[in-house]
Amino acid sequence: MIAFITDWGEDSYYVSSVKSVIKNINKNAEIIDITHNMGKYDIYSYSHILLRASKEFQENTIFLVVIDPTVGSSRKAILVETNQPKYYFIAPDNGILTQVKRKYGINKIIELNNKNYFWKESNTFHGRDIFGAFAAYLSKNINFKYFGNELLKINELNIKNPFYNKNNIIGHFLYKDSFGNLETDVENNNTFNFDKHSSYVISFEGKEYPLNYKEYYSECGDDKLLMHFDSSNYLEISIYKGSAASYLNIKNFNTKFEIKKIK
């Protein structure tokens, strides 16, 4: 199985072109789209999206990851085999696999530089010519030792962990979904004392907003800011039938915020 994620959008032929190449190499390949529409160029956000999406896939899934703003440069194309669970990630070596490494560990790294497995050679469509082609060959059970030379490490982003205690949290906005819900890096570890009957504030960039803790969206009234733990068990900032991203005017992700209990 190949799980496919890019930042290309779906208003061009790029996604279908890569799928066609995969099918040309392996007509039996199963391809699942993760997303192609969650913003552009944002390696930081996509590193978190990729980790969360990967958790639902079976072992030995091949993740074809093309968030590649420096395509054509000296950045490497790599294959990473993780420890536990065993997954295969084919991606640019630009930090996009930082969270995957932290969560799953790495068993093997291969630079994808054997041109015998390239589809074509171009400067700006490595998603088709390199990443897609190698994913297809790997899905045919060709041993990845033939794909290129082994590397010792990958490039990683400088991602800071959230801070918790009983009365406040310092975290980061990661990305927004199609409803405008704001996803964060705050995982439910039972350190912070969440209580539906208490009052909270969220502050960032010198601004402060009242906030309620609820278990689901409609438990809070319209146009009121709420927080809850989503299906991935991470804290989400939302507005019932509204967009928290628009309400808070979030333009840049990796923005630090603080949540405090006030009573």
Automatic annotation (TrEMBL):
Classification via InterPro entries: SAM_HAT_C, SAM_HAT_N, SAM_OH_AdoTrfase, SAM_OH_AdoTrfase_C_sf, SAM_OH_AdoTrfase_N_sf
* Residues covered by the S-adenosyl-l-methionine hydroxide adenosyltransferase N-terminal domain: 2-147
> Which of UniProt's keywords are assigned here?
S-adenosyl-L-methionine
Q: Name one Pfam family in it.
A: SAM_HAT_C
Q: Boundaries of each S-adenosyl-l-methionine hydroxide adenosyltransferase C-terminal domain copy?
A: 171-251
Record's keyword annotation contains S-adenosyl-L-methionine: yes
Gene3D superfamilies, per database record: Bacterial fluorinating enzyme like (2.40.30.90), S-adenosyl-l-methionine hydroxide adenosyltransferase, N-terminal (3.40.50.10790)
- Which family does the entry's similarity section mention? Belongs to the SAM hydrolase / SAM-dependent halogenase family.
- Can you say what this protein is called? S-adenosyl-l-methionine hydroxide adenosyltransferase
Please report the organism this UniProt entry assigns to the protein. Answer: Geotoga petraea
